[in-house]
Amino acid sequence: MAGAGGGADGRRARVALFPLPFQGHISPMLQLAGALRARGLAVTVLHTAFNAPDPARHPGLAFVAVPDAIPEAAAAATNGIAKILALNAAMEASGRVRAALASLMAAAEGEGEPWLACLVIDSTLTAAQKAAAGLGLPTLVLHTGSAACFRLFRSYDMLHHKGYLPSTESNLHMPIKELPPLQVRDLFDPSKLPNKEIGQKILNLATETTTNSSGAILSTFEALEPHELGMIRDELAPKGVPPFAVGPLHKLATAASRGAETSLLDQDRSCVAWLDARAPGSVLYVSFGSVARVTQDEFVEVAWGLAGSGRPFLWVVRRGLVLGVEGKQELPDGFGAAVEGRGKVVEWAPQQEVLAHPAVGGFWTHSGWNSTVESVYEGVPMLSRPLFGDQLATGRYVADTWRLGVLLEGVLERGEIEKAIRKLMEEDEGAAMRERAKGLKEKVRTCLESSGSSQQAVDKLVDHILSL
Ligand code: UDX
C-alpha cells in the first residue's frame, strides 16, 4: 500500500466525494470519507444545500456546498425517484458541480496542495460523473445497497427477456432461477409505477455510472455475500471496473462510531436509559428508516400489533412516517395506556447504539441496507417488512439466504404482527435465527481486523485511487 495517501511522487492525494442527499446514502459516503482520510488521503465532500451534512461533526473533512444543485422543485417532488432525476437534471443545467470540481483542481495547482485523484459519486449521480468526465477526472461509484441488489439491478434486461417482468398476479411466487433466492414478488417492477418510464430510468442510472467508472465500491463484506461478490468480480474486473467490498462502513473508520456524526436528525438518547432498565434480549426495536412511509391504517395495525404482542418495544415514529401527516404523529387513542411501562416511542433513535444494547433482542426493520448491515453487525435477528426498491430483495435474503429473520408479507394486520413477533422473540425458530446471527457477528468482525477482507479492500482501493 502506498504510504500516507501519497502518489508515486510522494505528493498527497485528495479525493472528492458526492453523496446523494438522503440519509441512507449520506451516511455510508461520509463513513467512506472517514476511512479514506484515516488512510492518509485528503478528503473533500461536495454536498447540496438540501439535507446538507454538518461540517462541525466531521473535523477532518473539507466540505464544499454546491448550493442550488437540488432546486425547490426537486426537493418538493413527492417521490424519491422523481427527486433523484430532478437533481441530476438540475446539476447538468447549472454546471455548478463542474465549477466546484474545476475549482478543486485549480487549488491543487498551489504549492504543497494535494492533487485531486478522483471523484467518488453515489451510483445514481450521472450528472456529477459527466461533470467529472468533462474535466478528465476519473470517477469511482459507491453502491449503498447489497451486492445481491447490485446484481439484480443489472439483470433487468434478462428479467424482461425471460418473461419474469412485467409481473402478473399469477407469477408473483415464481422463483427466479438465475438469481436465487429471489422470487418475482421481490422485484422492483417499474411497470407498476404510475410513471413506468422513470422507474426504468432509475434502474439504468447505477448501471450507467458503473460502466463509465474506474471502480465500484460496495457497502458489503465477504462474510455476508461471498457468492454475489464473486459473480460481480467475474463480471466487472475484465471490464476495467474493479469492485471493492469495504463494509460494514459504519465500523470501518472508527470502531466507536455511534452514528450521531452522520445522522441528519437529532437522535433522542433518552431511549438508552430506558433500555438500560430492560432485561437482556427482551426488547423489540422497531424502525422503518428515513424515507419509507406507511398509510394511516397500517400505522394503526403496527401500533396494536406491538401492544398485543406483550413484548417490550422501542418504536421510532419519525415525522412524516405516516402518509398525509407532516408534523408530529399522534398515537392511536388508548395506545399509551395499553403499553404503559412496556413501550417507548421516539422520533429518531441512536440506532447503532440501540442495536448494540444488550436489552435489544430483535429488530423490526423495513430492510433498508444500512439498517440490515447494522443489525447483522450486532448479531440482532430481524422481523423484515420491506416496503420498496432494494428492500424487497434484502428482506428475502434475510429470511431465506442468511436465515436471520422472519419476513412479514401481505397486508399488515395486528394478529399477523403479533404472531410474527412471537416467532422472532419467543419461539424455537427465532432462537435458531439468534444463534445464526451470533455466528455471523463473529465472522463480520474478522472482515474488519487489520488483515480482514474489508480492510484489505480499503488498502487496495487507496492504491487504486493513487494509480488513476
Ligand atoms: C434508503 C433506502 O430505503 C434503503 O433501502 C437503501 O438501501 C438506502 O437508502 P433508508 O430507508 O433511510 O435508506 O434506510 P437505511 O438504509 O436502513 O438507513 C437508515 C439509516 O438511518 C441507518 O443508518 C440508521 O442507523 C439511521 N437511523 C434510523 C437512525 O440513526 N435513527 C433512527 O431512528 C432510524
UniProtKB/TrEMBL annotation:
Keywords: Glycosyltransferase, Transferase. It comes from the Eukaryota. PANTHER family: GLUCOSYL/GLUCURONOSYL TRANSFERASES (PTHR11926), UDP-GLYCOSYLTRANSFERASE 76C1 (PTHR11926:SF950). GO terms for molecular function: quercetin 3-O-glucosyltransferase activity; quercetin 7-O-glucosyltransferase activity. Belongs to the UDP-glycosyltransferase family. This is Cytokinin-N-glucosyltransferase 1. Pfam families: UDPGT (PF00201).
